[in-house]
């Protein structure tokens, strides 16, 4: 050990140890290049100096409204300026950001408001009815609503709540940001549906988000010329942490409220978008765009895709259009993607069919994660890299959640054996690349959103004619997967497919509603357990 035995005088001090936080990125950008274009939201354009000042006003206004460090501030917003500003202004006030999926149903939003104990909620006028209905469902006091109007999108202010710009006007642009004293302090709270009807609250730390932002810059080659389009919802793993990343390199963020092929092509052609992320449904949208919606551009657009493995055919169709696509893998619990199908030069000359089959692999660990592998969940030993032995994808490193809010049992189980158990089943190729073969827990991924089969089954079981039901994923050209329900009716009872779909739609978010209902006797084991693998075979034949 030599002199390392005595480290007297080598302790941490304010000079050599600062808590890691993504907040540092915007503060630095505003100081170093205040005039650089930071963010674009349709006809609104702000420099880094202005972006920082607006985030500061939000932080100040939240404090004045009674939000204390450690409190939760929720948002129900699409990918607009206010949602991006909340990613800075909320933690700058010392609060925890809780971005809520705008596609959720009233009951789930009410649960999230209550479970997260939000003090304030920033709500787009288009989703005001959802938030207000959720407040009425709550037993205790819910969050104060600040309404974010967007008249240009057909969502004018209702007049029932303080409007966002008015709220900001009362804030101080020189507000002294609350920087974390400990990088393990909570930064964000994201709810994931998992396998039960009630979502679990995934807690992010400042440290994890900061390290993810730096890893993204290294793996994706971001720089000051980067123009990033927010297609991944900012309520989805905080936009895979991308929006916190762009100021680190001084790039530009372009907001995209409505995800359409025309909006994407316009942003690429008019703003010079160079990077974006999105589920495979977005790739299909671009491939199948109408001629009138397409625009010409003279640069390559770098795309991260995740949410479900993209078909090789989709990759083959989109790349000639000017898009370089890389498949990613991750979960809400890992701050978004932590695995990428990193390309090797020796694959360049392979026949197209082989190249796109390789691109459809899940991939290898990104730089921000310590270890991603496939293990036998019982023995916690790695499976051989033989291209066929399956196991569960396991993850460990700095970019893994702190845990599930108010659920220590679920946290302990998820971290059993020193790894995060993803619940996804895969094998390893001889070169170490992971390939997902199935999803444990029967999660359906529709348009990049997780759908719990258990939750859909629970909704259908409330229908008086339904005796038994099981829900599995049905492949879909538009959404990747959609829920398909197999139903046994009670003796003598009658119901139609349309009737059950409408019944489910009244109780579930639209993307969770089954798109097909098939009446049949369900295959079961001798103990009565439904054999979903048999149902998947039937779906494949549809």
TrEMBL record:
A Pfam family recorded for this sequence: AMP-binding_C
Matching Gene3D superfamilies: 3.30.300.30, N-terminal domain of ligase-like
CDD domains linked to this entry: ttLC_FACS_AEE21_like (cd12118)
Highest taxon of the lineage: Bacteria
The AMP-binding enzyme C-terminal domain, residue ranges: 455-529
InterPro entries membership: AMP-bd_C, AMP-bd_C_sf, AMP-binding_CS, AMP-dep_synth/lig_dom, ANL_N_sf
Ranges in coiled-coil conformation: none
Domain AMP-dependent synthetase/ligase: from-to ranges: 27-405
PROSITE patterns cross-referenced by the UniProt entry: AMP_BINDING (PS00455)
Entry-linked SUPFAM superfamilies: Acetyl-CoA synthetase-like
Keywords tagged on the record: Fatty acid metabolism, Ligase, Lipid metabolism
Family (UniProt): Belongs to the ATP-dependent AMP-binding enzyme family.
PANTHER family for this protein: ACYL-ACTIVATING ENZYME, BUTANOATE--COA LIGASE AAE1-RELATED
Record's protein name: Acyl-CoA synthetase
């Amino acid at each position: 050990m030599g002199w390392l035995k005595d480290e007297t005088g080598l302790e941490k001090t304010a000079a050599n140890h600062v808590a890691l936080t993504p907040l540092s990125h915007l503060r630095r950008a505003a100081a170093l290049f205040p005039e650089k274009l930071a963010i674009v939201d349709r006809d609104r354009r702000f420099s880094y100096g202005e972006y920082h000042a607006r985030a500061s006003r939000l932080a100040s206004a939240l404090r004045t409204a009674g939000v204390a460090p450690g409190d939760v501030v929720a948002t129900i917003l699409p990918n607009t300026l206010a949602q991006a500003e909340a990613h800075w202004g909320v933690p700058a006030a010392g609060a925890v950001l809780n971005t809520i999926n705008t596609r959720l149903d009233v009951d789930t939003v009410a649960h999230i408001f209550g479970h997260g104990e939000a003090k304030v909620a920033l709500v787009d006028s288009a989703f005001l009815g959802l938030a207000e209905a959720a407040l009425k469902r709550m037993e205790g006091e819910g969050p104060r609503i600040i309404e974010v109007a967007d008249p240009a999108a057909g969502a004018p202010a209702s007049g029932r709540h303080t409007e966002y710009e008015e709220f900001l006007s009362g804030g101080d642009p020189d507000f002294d940001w609350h920087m974390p004293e400990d990088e393990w302090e909570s930064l964000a709270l994201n709810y994931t549906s998992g396998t039960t009807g009630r979502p679990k609250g995934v807690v992010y730390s400042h440290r994890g988000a900061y390290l993810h932002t730096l890893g993204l810059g290294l793996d994706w080659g971001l720089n000051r010329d980067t123009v990033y389009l927010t297609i991944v919802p900012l309520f989805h793993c905080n936009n895979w942490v991308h929006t916190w990343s762009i100021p680190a390199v001084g790039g530009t963020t372009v907001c995209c409220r409505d995800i359409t092929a025309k909006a994407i092509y316009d942003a690429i052609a008019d703003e010079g978008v160079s990077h974006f992320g999105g589920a495979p449904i977005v790739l299909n949208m671009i491939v199948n765009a109408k001629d009138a919606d397409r625009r010409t551009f003279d640069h390559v657009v770098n795309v991260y895709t995740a949410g479900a493995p993209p078909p090789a055919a989709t990759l083959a169709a989109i790349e000639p259009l000017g898009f370089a696509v890389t498949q990613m893998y991750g979960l809400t619990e890992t701050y978004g993607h932590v695995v990428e199908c990193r390309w090797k030069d020796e694959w360049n000359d392979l026949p197209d069919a082989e190249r796109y089959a390789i691109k459809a692999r899940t991939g290898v660990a990104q730089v921000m994660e310590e270890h991603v592998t496939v293990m036998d969940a019982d023995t916690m030993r790695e499976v051989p890299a033989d291209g066929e032995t399956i196991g569960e994808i396991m993850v460990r490193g700095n970019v893994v959640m702190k845990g599930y809010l108010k659920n220590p049992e679920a946290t302990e189980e998820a971290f059993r054996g020193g790894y995060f158990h993803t619940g996804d089943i895969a094998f390893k190729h001889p070169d170490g690349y992971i390939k997902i073969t199935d999803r444990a827990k029967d999660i359906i991924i529709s348009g990049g959103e997780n759908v719990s089969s258990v939750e859909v089954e629970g909704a259908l079981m409330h229908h008086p004619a339904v005796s038994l039901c099981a829900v599995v994923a049905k492949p879909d050209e538009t959404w990747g997967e959609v829920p398909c329900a197999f139903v046994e009716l009670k003796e003598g009872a009658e119901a139609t497919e349309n009737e059950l779909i409408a019944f489910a739609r009244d109780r579930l978010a639209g993307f969770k509603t089954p798109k097909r209902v098939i009446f049949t006797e369900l295959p079961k084991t001798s103990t009565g357990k439904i054999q979903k693998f048999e149902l998947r075979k039937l779906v494949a034949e549809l």
